[in-house]
Amino acid sequence: MNQENFIRRYFIVGERRFSNYWWATLIFIGSVGFLFTGVSSYLNMVNFSISFLSNNEIFNSIPGFNFIFQNMFHNSTTETINFFPQGLLMCFYGSLGFLLSLYWWFLIFWNVGGGFNEFNKKENFIRIFRWGYPGKNRKIDLYYTLKEVESIRVEIQQGLDSQRTIFLKFKGNREIPITGIGQPLTLQEIEKQASELANFLQVSLEGL
């Protein structure tokens, strides 16, 4: 018998999904645009204030003042929007979006929720491995023996936030979800995986 008859391994994608890359990039670009517009409106307000100063005879009498004003401020911004309140709000929402995208990129980099489920008949163990947040729980690595498994249970919740989850049911009514979070499998995929796993472990299948 080949190794596939003794070992089954199912990989969990975690946060490194295409949709997360897409949304993190989109939010980052949008937040930078908001911040740029808000800061530009602030610089435009500063430009207006300095324009008033540059027309003042007292400041014009200061050597080099006009030269500094013309080169540093006059051509640095274009007329956009008023800083109060539109520009200030755009800076606020831009900052929130930037922090959100940064957090999302960290989740992708850490691959939170990613890992694998290994079912090993050769050495008689089940291994549930997941990547977590940095710290003492960065690696979640659980081991169980095959004889502890009582059945495979499938839970399907239809609706706006539909969930399809496969549980390992152990003796003593303990249950552990083994499917990924955030990207539910299709009904056909979860039926196929649950049936294959139940046949492989030679236990009953509940919920289908």
Automatic annotation (TrEMBL):
Keywords: Chloroplast, Membrane, Photosynthesis, Plastid, Thylakoid, Transmembrane, Transmembrane helix
Record Pfam families: Ycf4 (PF02392)
Compartment(s): Plastid thylakoid membrane; Plastid, Chloroplast thylakoid membrane
GO CC, alphabetical: chloroplast thylakoid membrane; photosystem I
Residues spanning the membrane: 21-43, 92-112
GO biological process, alphabetically ordered: photosynthesis
Membrane topology field: Multi-pass membrane protein
UniProt cross-references to InterPro entries, sorted A to Z: PSI_Ycf4_assembly (IPR003359)
Primary localization class, coarse: plastid
Record function comment: Seems to be required for the assembly of the photosystem I complex.
Family: Belongs to the Ycf4 family.
PANTHER family found in the cross-reference section: PHOTOSYSTEM I ASSEMBLY PROTEIN YCF4, PTHR33288
Name of protein: Photosystem I assembly protein Ycf4
Naturally occurring in which organism (per UniProt): Hariotina reticulata
